[in-house]
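lol forgot to send this yesterday, sorry. struct tokens for the thing we talked abt
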């Protein structure tokens, strides 16, 4: 079964010739809200959250990483299901609080927090600030003393080579993220010596888009070993051990799903001795996934506005492009352009007899959403759907480029539709603002 077919079967039940989201035809959603359009399905979010919680040992908490998709309706959905939120900027913190998240249910990470951002985090009383450098530790301590408070912090660790893995490595090498593992003792001494800092835990995050469960287990094994050493050195158990996120989803034809059954089995074995270990007495284990929870739940819908054949190649020109979905264009970390799963929404099941490039409306050859995609013959007005678009879609895209309208975002829950963000002309408005 192709990746497109498996995604439709799993996430879009009832679809025949027409793609359905939560039982609603995509054509109907597009007619009501315009294109291009992002559509998120809460049923898929709930399934992924349930699968993840089922794979984790007892006592784990899930904190959703806002950077994957900060749509306010999505944040409220996770909060309603008992999740905390992880943020990496003052804007994300404001989004979390506006969505109704208590400040103490927020973790704040990020390697470049400004003085103003740290002031805001301290004033709001966020659950933990994750310290990314010795300089930042000193800065937080000074702010805490000015406010007359003791600030809960965790040390983000850039782990050693044993914790490498994932499609995008964030640790195990020279990196701007966290304090290198070999400098942990130095960081602990500095933070423990500052009475304004309440050192509560560790944050270990080595990579992202992991599809191999053995890589996850290896990273968790390394994290437990590191936490034991730190707890022994401090003479007390850590309050929090944050393993970060990293769980991946398949984007391309040669990729397979993360095996959550094997993950569950091996994590349970790994954590079997933790419960009776005095160094982990009262420790809260946390994961902060984003992509795994929302990636499959979203689709990007764009209308074909023109069809051209140029020197033997067919181009489907659409009203949505890389300015709306940079990741699908391959311009968000791909070294070699690979296609996200793509289909024509109203022609499911038809024979794919055309190899076409799906391109957006921008005046740049980079604006290619799909290259040599096998599709059925399409017509102007048909809808192209890009799957796996719930994470790092709209807000990871250069929406101001060339001044096109910003797509609407809608959330489908139990057959009901919520307009999460209306379509806006902010790109054009931005260009007007810079006129002399």
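and heres what i got for the seq, position by position
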């Amino acid at each position: 079964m192709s990746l497109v077919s498996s995604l439709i079967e799993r996430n879009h039940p009832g679809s025949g010739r027409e793609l359905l989201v939560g039982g609603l035809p995509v054509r109907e959603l597009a007619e009501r809200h315009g294109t291009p359009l992002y559509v998120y399905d809460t049923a898929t979010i709930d399934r992924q959250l349930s699968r993840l919680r089922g794979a984790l040992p007892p006592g784990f908490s899930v904190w959703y990483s806002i950077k994957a998709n900060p749509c306010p309706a999505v944040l409220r959905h996770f909060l309603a299901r008992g999740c905390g939120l992880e943020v990496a900027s003052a804007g994300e913190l404001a989004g979390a609080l506006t969505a109704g998240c208590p400040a103490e249910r927020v973790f704040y990470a990020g390697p470049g927090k400004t003085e103003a951002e740290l002031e805001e985090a301290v004033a709001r009383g966020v659950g933990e600030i994750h310290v990314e450098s010795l300089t930042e530790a000193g800065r937080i301590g000074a702010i805490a003393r000015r406010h007359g408070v003791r600030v809960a912090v965790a040390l983000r660790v850039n782990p050693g080579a044993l914790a490498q893995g994932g499609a995008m490595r964030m640790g195990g090498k020279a990196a701007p993220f966290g304090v290198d593992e070999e400098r942990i003792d130095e960081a602990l001494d500095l933070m423990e010596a500052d009475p304004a800092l309440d050192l509560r835990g560790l944050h270990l995050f080595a990579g992202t888009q992991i599809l191999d469960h053995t890589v996850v287990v290896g990273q968790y094994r390394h994290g437990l070993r590191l936490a034991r050493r730190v707890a022994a050195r401090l003479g007390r158990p850590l309050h929090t051990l944050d393993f970060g996120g990293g769980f991946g989803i398949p984007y391309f034809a040669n990729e397979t799903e993360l095996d959550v059954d094997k993950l569950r089995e091996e994590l349970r074995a790994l954590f079997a001795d933790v419960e009776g270990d005095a160094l982990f007495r009262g420790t809260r284990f946390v994961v902060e996934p984003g992509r795994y929870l929302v990636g499959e739940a979203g689709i990007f819908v764009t209308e074909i506005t023109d069809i051209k054949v140029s020197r033997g190649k067919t181009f489907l020109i659409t009203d949505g492009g890389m300015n709306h979905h940079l990741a699908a264009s391959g311009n968000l970390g791909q070294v070699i352009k690979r296609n996200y799963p793509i289909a024509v929404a109203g022609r499911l099941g038809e024979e794919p007899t055309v190899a076409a490039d799906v391109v957006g409306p921008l005046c740049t050859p980079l604006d290619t959403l799909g290259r040599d995609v096998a599709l059925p013959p399409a017509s102007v007005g048909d809808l192209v759907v890009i799957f796996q678009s719930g994470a790092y879609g709209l807000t990871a895209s250069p929406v101001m480029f060339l001044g096109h309208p910003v797509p609407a975002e809608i959330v489908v829950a139990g057959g009901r539709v919520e307009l999460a963000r209306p379509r806006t002309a902010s790109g054009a408005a931005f260009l007007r603002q810079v006129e002399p």
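Residues 166-171 have pLDDT under 50 and may be disordered. anyway ping me if u want another try
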